[in-house]
């Protein structure tokens, strides 16, 4: 059986689609899979069982990336095409069966994606972490943290736009409270993660943490980031692709939302929670519309509230890791 799975070019949406892909892997053992997605999330799919081909689609002018994908796929008669981009490619390649994504704004994205195959409840996102990613995590993390699911705190202080970023001084204060004497992660170090282009925006937090920081900014692809984060005791971050990676990796995950939409894009999983700004979202979005460079959109989230939510997550029963699969190579 040959399956074409077309998913997002955005990291977070691609992570949220992995549950549907995992369902196909489980239901059709031995199927040959082709996954098409954007270059950024592509590493997340490199260890998918049955992967025959991984096609990364960098955007090209005049939508030529879609033409390229069609040329790559039109010579194959697919048994199933799952097109989460609702593209012309999904309709124009030969296929016995084809299904498409349809928007359902009232649902969380995981539920919306599950509806493509009529799955309710939807399958949880799943990551396939290979030996190469684990080896790189071993290299990047200090010896104590790389030995297992270590006691460190992971923080994602950036997002795809600055209006969704909680102020760095508040992240620093939160880290101090959680890792201080008597705190739930007493004495723990703090791993800071951010994509390469966002590295300078993470610098104030790294400077504030000083020697306690484990600087992973700009040093990991998404799968290596997952291998690092799944060893953490807790992940706290803004609404971002890294937040979804943390939740899918099984790490207790706390997502911070100001002008975002947690009911649609909140972290998904039994050990995932959100903290939402006390300022109404409509007001935040109006401020952002009036001034795209508006600051302070995340100021309605107090450190004490995030601290309590973090303590509640850490204090729960040991986290479940069934959704994380390590694939040896």
Automatic annotation (TrEMBL):
Q: Which Gene3D superfamilies match?
A: Glycogen Phosphorylase B
Domain of life, per UniProt, equals: Bacteria
Q: Glycosyltransferase as a keyword?
A: yes
Q: Which UniProt keywords apply?
A: Glycosyltransferase, Transferase
- Keyword Transferase carried by entry: yes
InterPro entries reported for this sequence:
Glyco_trans_9, LPS_LOS_Heptosyltrfase
Under the heading Pfam families, the entry gives: Glyco_transf_9
Q: What is this protein called?
A: Lipopolysaccharide export system permease protein
């Amino acid at each position: 059986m040959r399956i074409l799975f077309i998913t997002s070019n955005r990291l977070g949406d691609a992570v949220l689609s992995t549950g549907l892909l995992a369902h196909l892997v489980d239901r059709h053992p031995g199927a040959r899979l082709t996954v098409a997605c954007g270059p950024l999330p592509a590493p997340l799919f490199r260890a998918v069982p049955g992967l025959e081909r991984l096609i990364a689609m960098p955007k090209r002018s005049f939508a030529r990336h879609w033409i390229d994908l069609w040329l790559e796929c039109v010579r194959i008669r697919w048994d199933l095409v799952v097109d989460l981009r609702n593209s012309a490619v999904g309709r124009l390649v030969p296929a016995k069966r084809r299904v498409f994504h349809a928007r359902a704004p009232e649902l969380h994205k995981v539920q919306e994606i599950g509806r493509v195959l009529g799955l309710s409840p939807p399958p949880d996102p799943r990551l396939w972490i290979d030996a190469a990613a684990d080896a790189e995590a071993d290299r990047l993390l200090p010896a104590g943290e790389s030995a297992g699911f270590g006691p460190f705190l992971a923080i994602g202080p950036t997002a795809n736009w600055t209006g969704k970023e909680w102020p760095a001084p508040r992240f620093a204060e939160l880290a101090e409270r959680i890792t201080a004497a008597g705190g739930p992660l007493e004495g723990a170090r703090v791993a800071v993660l951010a994509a390469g282009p966002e590295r300078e925006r993470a610098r104030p937090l790294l400077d504030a943490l000083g020697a306690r920081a484990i600087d992973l900014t700009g040093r990991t692809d998404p799968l290596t980031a997952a291998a690092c984060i799944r060893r953490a005791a807790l992940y706290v971050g803004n609404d971002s692709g890294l937040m979804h990676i943390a939740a899918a990796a099984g790490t207790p995950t706390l997502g911070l939302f100001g002008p975002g939409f947690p009911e649609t894009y909140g972290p998904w999983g039994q050990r995932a929670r959100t903290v939402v700004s006390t300022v109404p979202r409509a007001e935040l979005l109006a401020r952002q519309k009036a001034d795209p460079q508006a600051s302070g959109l995340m100021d309605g989230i107090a450190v004490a509230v995030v601290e309590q939510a973090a303590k509640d997550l850490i204090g729960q029963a040991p986290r479940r890791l069934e959704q994380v699969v390590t694939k040896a190579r």
